[in-house]
Design goal:
This protein has 255 residues and is of the alpha+beta class. It contains eight helices and eight strands. The termini are far apart.
Length: 255
Amino acid sequence: MLVQYRRDGRLRLFRQHDHALLAGELAASWTGIGRMPTELPFDLVLAAALHDLAWNELDERPEWDKEARRPFAFHSYPLKPKLAAYRDGLDRLERIHPYAALLGSLHYTSFPEVSKVTALQEAEAERCRKLKDTLQMEPDQEARLARDLSYLKFFDILSILLCLTPPSASTDEQPEWVSTARHPETPDGGHLHVTWWDDDVVHVDPFPFRDSLEVRLPFRELPGDLDGPKALARAWAQASPGYWWLCIRQAPRLA
């Protein structure tokens, strides 16, 4: 779950899979920031859109962090159930598209907390080896794989950034790395400057997409003064799903 802390004290919760679908939309519209437009291949776009399929069951309802006295967000969620979800999600993704599963496995196993889990690292290394065999990947295709992985990570971060940083969101509760990614670096070494116009419009410069994007993000908004797991479960059940219409535009040019 992505938890956006609102300045009015409320919590806006986005499912991980919905954030991933936004990442997929960004990838599908990408043309780059160079002189020659470059559309990304379908299997990379699919990997971006489905990279958090593993979170579907975990995000059926938020869980309570009794130490922090707030709902768990994706970055604070307990490791053991998260690792089990990663494995199951990659199994499902493998049945959908082997290259998307290969990228997803490389993405998950690069997370700092996961990099220390030997059993998962070994299992996913074996998965990757089998997927490369299935895909009949040659050694000279490793460069493309590394490039696509860097794009997946970029769209993941950009989508999280958009979900968590509109003007009405508090920056105090965000993970530190979100604030450092306010101008994320593209895989080719460029930087996108992300500037909010208002809560529903964000400007990106240089503009790397085919056209302006209008995206719909489902969320549920909960009170910020929840006092335990029962209150969280009750608030989640009572909250009506809402939709955030977000417009991503080119920054206006000064005359």
